[in-house]
Please model this.
Amino acid sequence: MAIRHPAQHQEQDKGLCAMRECIGAATFSRQANDDRGRHPQHPLSFTGKRAAFRRLLLMSASAAALSAVLPDQAAAQTWTGATNNDWTVGSNWNTGTAPVGGAVLIATPADVVLGVVPGATSTTGNFRLGGAAAGVTTSLTIQNGSTLTSTGSTIAIGNALGATSALTVTGAGSQWIVNGTLQILATGNTLNIENDGTVVATSRAVVGTPAGTSTATLNVKGGTLETGFITIANAGGQVNYDNAVIRARGNNANFFGGTAAQNNIAAGGLTFDTNGFTVIASAAGGLSGVGGLTKTGNGTLFLRGGSTYTGETVIQQGTLAIGVVAGASDALANSRRVVANATFDISGIVDATSHIQSLAGTGTVVLGTKTLAITNAGDTFAGTLGGTGGLQISGGTQTLSGVNTYGGATTITGGTLRAGAAGAFSAASAYVAAAGTTLDLNGFNQTIASLDNAGLVRTGGAPGTTLTVSGNYVGSGGTLLLNTALDGDSSITDRLVARRHLRCLHAAHRQCRRRRRADRRRHQGDRRRRRLERHLRAAGQLRHWRPAGRGRRRLCLYAAEERDQHARRRRLVSAVQPDQSAAIGAGRAALSGRRSPLRELRTGAARDEPAGEPAAARRQPLLGRQRSDGPRRH
Model:
């Protein structure tokens, strides 16, 4: 330790007295609990006469404070802008040469450009863009395919002294590579990544300062940010995504910091590339805004927070999973649709059910033991729903056209579940259709485990569609709508086959007047024209029966052929309202001759008469007598 001579003390005292005389009495105050090194709450005030010298001293003090914040910055290369705004021109720097790897400070009011000449490159060590005093505005633009590489331990936009700074990376090929942590500090400081520009922060990107409520901002608009994770250090920080790409650089358990409101997706949307890693988006935050989220790249993205964004969610590659923590089961409840072209996994949710609005795509939905609830459907899903969990439809029309194998219940509490291909309904699932809902085969054959119908089950499409129920069919006051084309001896009708518990069905055909007019040319026989305007009612109950030696039961369905006055064939739509467990074995209706009585017209290939056939059916011929002197009402 150096020992100073008393004479040296006297000389220093004289110097201090002279400084006081030049500066005047300088005073400042700060709150007692201010952190050391922070900007004081009240600025310095001077009463001396030599203002120029005082300003110089203030700038020196500010530079000293900045040096304390930015290590090794006392010897930094500083921007002067003596010639123009081109970063690569040496005369614009205090050293007379452009930066080549040392510490760089841009603290004076300036609009610096790297890329006046396209394809420019430069390197720095520590780097700070930010004025040395409040009110100073600085900016740096990296453009025209140029690259700035910063390798120091401190890379920062802004400082704690109240200056305003903005760094913009814009244009294809333009990039800023930060080998470490990128910091956007204090209020008014902004990083803009635009128009295919790229920023790589190998460690992380920090928005804001831990102390206070500064409003630092990160805007990714049409550009790409590649980083380990994003930290929003305080409640005032903001990250905005608009046609943005975020690319992960490693596994991370808390990629997005802050709250959902601080992570805003604009109309252009956000694409998240997991890049082969496993990334958990947020522990408590999430994403908000009117835009949507697109998942790309191999790897898994977990959404844990309560996201509120309303755009669509598209899974192009890898896996998008939700859950892990309580309350995250509905992370996609506000997204207007989920397009699962890769893997959508809800098996890890804490709650029993995860809600989405609509489901589309050609990928895989992993249910695990959970239930996927679709609340406002309007899409076709051509992929696979798998697992032991279930599916719930509560609104809209959801179409399934893939091969689905899930084993849990399919519950329709609102809207319509529609088939888009044969075998699209899971054969391992028990189906429940509530009152006012529809299970629509849409003309495609389906096999299901069981059916409890209080709504409407319709076969749809051309006649001949088969719904096979491997277990029980329970009619709970619902309606089964079958299509039948009556066309001579080989008429086709839809069929419902139940292979287990069967009971009776009651017909719901309405009966009204039947009018018949015999053709005056009686001798032509088969070519006679008839006008039959009728609706038929089964005489009594529709009955099932079991042929001898066979285990499957068939149901006799009484129907009729119908032609208009021009001999055109007409289709009969049979509406059946089941109220008990039952089955309809339809197939092809067999007509025994052209004037078969009603008792001989029944479904299936059965040739034996069912026991207990209604007497009215035995008495009443279908087409009546051959001769008639005129119209006859029944």
